[in-house]
Amino acid sequence: MTELEELRERVARLEEHLGAVSTASRSLDEDQETMGRQLSAMRHLVQALSITQSEHTDSLGRIEGRLSRIEAGQALILRGVEQLLARDEGVDPGWGSPAPAGV
Prior knowledge:
Elements: H1 3-89
C-alpha cells in the first residue's frame, strides 16, 4: 500500500468516525431539548399544584371556622332545650335535682 492510499484510507476512517460523532451529538442535542421542555412543563405543574394546595388550605380553614361556629351554635341550642325540658319537669338543669318550690 502506498503512502497516498494509506492516507486516503485514514481520511476515510476519520470521516466515518466524524459522521458517527456528529450523529451522536445531534441525538444528544435533541434529547437535551426534550428534557428542557419536560422540565419546563414539570415546573408549571408544580406551580399549579402549589396554587391549588394553597387555595384548598384556605378553603378548608374557612370550612373549619364555619363548622366551629355551627358546633357552638348547636351546643347553645342543646343547652336551651335541656333547660326548657328541665323547667317543664321541675328539675334544675345545673344540678339534676328537683328545683326548690316556687321556682
